[in-house]
Description:
This protein has twelve helices and nine strands. The protein is α/β, with parallel strands linked by helices.
Amino acid sequence: MNAQTPRRVEHQQTDKGYVPVYTTAIVEQPWSSYSKADHRTWATLFERQREVLKGRACREFIDNQERFGMSADAIPRFDDLNEVLAQATGWQLVGVEGLLPELDFFDHLANRRFPVTWWIRKPGQLDYLAEPDLFHDLFGHVPLLLNPVFADYMEAYGRGGVKAHGIGAEALVNLTRLYWYTVEFGLIREEGGLRIYGSGIVSSKGESIHCLESAAPNRIGFDMERIMRTRYRIDTYQKTYFVIDSFEQLMEATRPDFTPIYQRLAAEPSIPAGAVLDGDEVIQRGSGEGWATDGDV
Ligand SMILES: [Fe+2]
């Protein structure tokens, strides 16, 4: 990869503080530069998560990882995955350094390009990393891009993001919450019960178990406007998970123009991450055990 210095474009709040975000051109995955330790990290995480996700991740997620031929053997090559993706849904993976400026990220999604961080975490960071790495992006996000409906949802989200960026900061906050509670931390109903589809969950051993089996969190039926008002956690497990019936339900919800929705929501107070409202479809009311008392973002 080129050793050019990326240009700093903005700062972003993370759980570790305010960090500069750099923009870079798309990078080519430096596959031959991955070390043995990098491949081993991938193998360790891959095997561990596949075991944890048995009976916990939705069927599509596991099936699609297999369609891609992802395995513990080696870090997958973006080029190989792109051949499968191009045929299935026309999506394309592009290598990036890490977090992108919001508008760049939305623009990629709107054009059916998914940015994947090229580098993988170090062996001492198996359980927690503040920023996305290759394991989170590739293991967690890429499988569902093979699902035609979910693939369309991601594109619609990107187009919505470009638009929201032009409307203003509050609209972006509303839209980011939707991404957070669906793409990153969503649950879905399957015949056997609740299953995981959110990438932030499937790439975390602890949260994969917590989100389904702990009595602490709320599990509430999907309601887009409710989600757009709901604050979330970046430094602890979620206090609330929202449950969809199907990917079609997600796609349907994004069909209307969001502009009047943002206007309406601007007059409403935000909802704390752990709150349960009268109108909620409560699948499980959380016990709240172990919840931090502040820190919702
Ligand atoms: Fe993510």
